[in-house]
Amino acid sequence: MSAVSPGPLPVGSLSPAPPFPSPARLTVESLDQHYGGAQVLRGVSLAIEPGRCLALLGRNGAGKTTLLRCLTGLIPESRGRIRLDGADITGLRPDARARAGIAYVPQGREIFADLTVAENLKVAARAHGLARTEAVDEAVALFPALRDLWSRPGGNLSGGQQQQLAIARALATRPRLLLLDEPTEGIQPSIVSAIAAVIAGLNGRITVLLVEQYLDFAVRLADAFVVLGRGSVVEQGMRDTLDPEALSRHIVV
C-alpha cells in the first residue's frame, strides 16, 4: 500500500514539531503468562528492529492482546524477559514503561469520552512533559480531520474518528515503540486508508507492533510477521519470505 499524504495542516496551525525520538528495538524472550491456572502465553519470543513494523497475527484467543498488555505492564509476566534497546524492563510499572517510550492503542480505543479532542491530546502530551506546540500539533498533522473536531467531546465522535484520536493521542507522547491492537476493527474504508498512510509514514521513525485481523492491511504495512496459536509462536519471518496464503490459514476460523 503506497502512503497517501494526509494533507497539509489547516490554516492557522503551528509549525511542524521536531522529529520523534530514535525508534527502539524490542526483544521478547521466552515469555509465559497465566490467568489463574490457565496458561495464555507459552514461551513467546520475538524481536523488532528499530523503526520497523512487525505484525502479530492469530485467531481470536491466541494471546495477541495478552502479549500487548504484558508489554505495557498492565498484566504481569509469569516468566521471561522484555527488553527495550537491551535494557530489561520486565517488572516495571506501566507508567515507567510509558516514560521509556512505549505507547499503546488498545482494542476499543478507550479515549476519554467526556474530554474534547483537544483535551485528549493535551492530557497525553502533558503527562509526558511535552508542550502542545511540540507534540500535539505533530499528531494532528498526521490526522488533520481532528482539527475540525477540536472542541467536540470524544464520546460524540464516530468509531473511525475515535480511532484516529486514539492513535494521535498515543503519538502525542512521542513514543519510540507504538503498540496497535486491531486499529481497523469496525472502521470505514476511507479511515482505514488514512490509518494505513500514517503507519506507512512512520516507517523508520517509530517501531510498530501491529495486531491485526485484516491480513491485506498487515501484509502491506509490516516488514515481518509473528503468528500466535494457542499462546505459542507457530510461524514467523520477513514479509518477502512468508506466503500470505500460509498466514491466512492461521487466522481464518
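(ticket continues) Second input and output from the same batch:
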Amino acid sequence: MPGPAAQTGATSGAPRVLTRRGTELFMLVFAAVIVTFALLLVEVAQEQTVTRDLFLYGAAFLVLFGAAHFAVRRWAPYADPLILPLVALINGIGLVILHRLDLAEASGGPFTGKQILFTTVGVVLFVLVLKFVQDHRTLAQYGYTCGFVGLALLALPGLLPSSISEANGAKLWISIGGMSIQPGEFAKILLLIFFASFLVSKRELFTTAGKRFLGIDWPRARDMMPVLVAWMLSIGIVVLEKDLGTSLLFFGIVLVMLYIATERAVWVFLGLSMFALGCIVAFNLFDHVQVRVNTWLDPLGPEVDGKDPGFQLRTGLMGMAKGGIEGSGLGKGLPQKTPWASSDFIISAVGEELGLIGLMALFLVYLLLMMRGLRSALAVRDSFGKLFAGGLSFTLALQLFVVAGGVTGLIPMTGLTAPFMAAGGSSMLANYVLIALLLRVSDAARRPQAPAKPKPKQAPIAEAHTELVERPR
C-alpha cells in the first residue's frame, strides 16, 4: 500500500495534468478559428466565392492538430501546454499566406495542397517520435552514431551527381522521380544529439583538465578533438555545398551549447573571433559569397553575369514599405511580385499584408515558443536534457533571426526558411521531429518525482551495544 504522501501526490497530479491538456486543446481550437477567419478574409479580398470547403480546411486543421494533442495527452501528459498551440498557429499563418499566393497564381504554385500534405506527414512523425522515444536520455547512448549519420547525411548531396542534387547553385537536395528531400534538415537534429551527449560526458574536462595559456584553461586536445572535428566537418561540408545558412546555423548551435555546458564566456568570444575570420576568408575565396555581400550592401547595384541579384531583396523591402504599420490587408497586397515569396521571403509577404504590427505579433509568437523551450531546458533535471533542449530552442531562434535579418537587409541572405511557415517538405518534417523531442524533454521536466522510499529505522548504537552485552550466553 502506498503511503499517504504518495496517494496525495497521485490524486493532486491528475487534475493538474487534465488542466494542462485542457488548456492546450482550448488554444488549438483558438488557433484553428484564427486560421479559418484569415482564410475567409483572403477569399473575400480576392473576390472569390466562399464555399463550405473553406470551413472544411479549418475543420481539417483542427482534426490534424487534435490528433497531435491526443498523442501528447497519451505519451507526454506533463509537457508544456503552449508549445503545440504556438506551433499550430505559426503553421496556420504560413498556410494562409501560401493560399493567398495560390489565389494570385504565383509562379511555382500551387503551394497550399503540398504544404497541407507535408504538415500531415510532419504530425505523423511527431506522433511516432513521442511514442517511441519514451525517455530523451536514451538518445545520449547513441551520440557518436548520431554524429556519424548526421555528417553522412550532410555530405551525401555533395557526393551525388549535380543532376539530382543541385538547385539554385547549391548541392543540398536528393531529387528522385519528382520527389526531393534535403538531408541537412535532419542532420541538424542528429548532430545536436551528438554535441549534447559529448559535451555532457566531457563537461568537467572542459573546465579543469589541460593547460593554462593566455589566462585561459584549455582542455586537452584529445578531449576537445571529437567535437572540433565534427564541428569543422559539418561547417566545411555545407560551405563547399554553397549552403551558407546551414553553416551559420551549425556554427551558432555548437557555440551556444559550449557556453551552456561550460558557463564560460571565453568560448563565445573565441567563436565570434573565428566567425569574423571565416567571413573574411569566405568572402575572398567564394564568388557566390561576394555576390550576396555586395547585394546586401547595395541592393540597387548593377547586374552580375546578366542577372540582377538585388531584385529579390528590393521587391521584398518595397513590399514591406508598402504595407507600412498596419499593412495592406490580407489578400490586398502584391507579395507574388517578390521571387520565392513562398519560401525564402515569406516573412516579407507577412510584413506587406499584415504590416509592422502583424510582423511583430508573429515574432512574438515565435519568441513565446522559444521561451517555453528554454524554460523546459532550465527545469529538466539531467544535464543532457538541459543541453539538448537548449540547443533545440536556440536552433529555432537562430533560424528565425537569420531569415528575418536577411529579408529586412540586416544581414546578407543565407537561404534558410522560416520554421513551420515556408513552403518546403524537409524543413517542415524535421521541425516537427524537433518539437516532439522538445515536448519529450518538457514532459520529463514537469513530471513530478516519485516520493523517496523511507529508509528502515536502525537502532541507536548505544541501544544496540547494550542489547549485545546483556544478551545471555
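Agent notes: DSSP finds 17 helices and six strands in the chain. Residues 1-12, 461-473 have pLDDT under 50 and may be disordered. Closing as not reproducible unless the customer responds.
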